[in-house]
Write a structure and sequence with these properties.
Oligomer: single chain
Bound molecules: D-xylitol-5-phosphate, zinc ion
CATH topology: TIM Barrel
Structural class: alpha/beta
CATH superfamily: Aldolase class I
Length: 218
Amino acid sequence: MSNQRLIAPSILAADFTNLKADIEMINKSDADYVHCDVMDGVFVPNISFGIPVISQVSKIAQKPLDVHLMIIDPDRYIKEFAKAGASILTVHLEACKHLHRTIHSIKDEGMRASVCLNPHSPIHFLEDIINDLDMVLLMSVNPGFGGQTFIDNTYNKVHKLKELITAKKSDCKIEIDGGVNYETGKKLFDAGADILVAGSFVFQSENPIETISKLKEL
Ligand code: DX5
Ligand code: ZN
C-alpha cells in the first residue's frame, strides 16, 4: 500500500462547451484520475451528465475515470458504466438497499468498487462491508453542487475511517470530495486521506496544471 497522495480533478467544474480542452489539460497534468459526477435530480437536487458523456470522455482521457454516482438504485446502470469506461465506480450508501450485492456486481464488471457516505452518515455503517471495498469516498459537503464550503467534521471521519481500515486489515483507499483547497487538502492528507477530489479549486485557478501539482505536494 503506497502513501502516495493522489488527485482527482472533478469535471463538474470544467467548461462543458470545451470539455475536450479540459480533459487534455488533465491528461498533461500530474492528476491521477478524472472524477465524473453523475447526478439524477432525485438523490441530489441537481442534474449533471450521464453515460453518453462519460463514454465520450473515456475516449480521450488518459487517466482512469473515477465515476461518482449520485443516483438512486445504481444497480440499474452498473453494466453500462463499465461499458462507458469507468475504472472506479462509487455508489452512495444512502442510495442502496442491498449494498453488498451492489459492490459485488461492480467488481464482477471488472471495476473497482467504492462506497460514498454523505456528511451525516457515520463511519460505523461500513464495519461489515469495509473488507469488500476498494475505496471509500467521504463527502465533505452535501452532494449536488461544486463550490460549497468544507464541513470540518470530515477530519474526524477520516481518522475514524483510517482506524476501521487498520482494525479490519483492509487495503481500502480513502477519497474526499467537496471544498478541497490547499488548506483543507493538507489537513486531509495529514489525517490519512489517499485521494482528493478538487473541482472549482482546480478549474477556477489561473493555472490548473500547476494547482494540481501543488495539491499533490501538500
Ligand atoms: C459534489 C460533487 C463534487 C464536486 C466538488 O456533489 O460530488 O465532486 O465536483 O466540487 P468542489 O471541489 O468545487 O467542492
Ligand atoms: Zn464527486
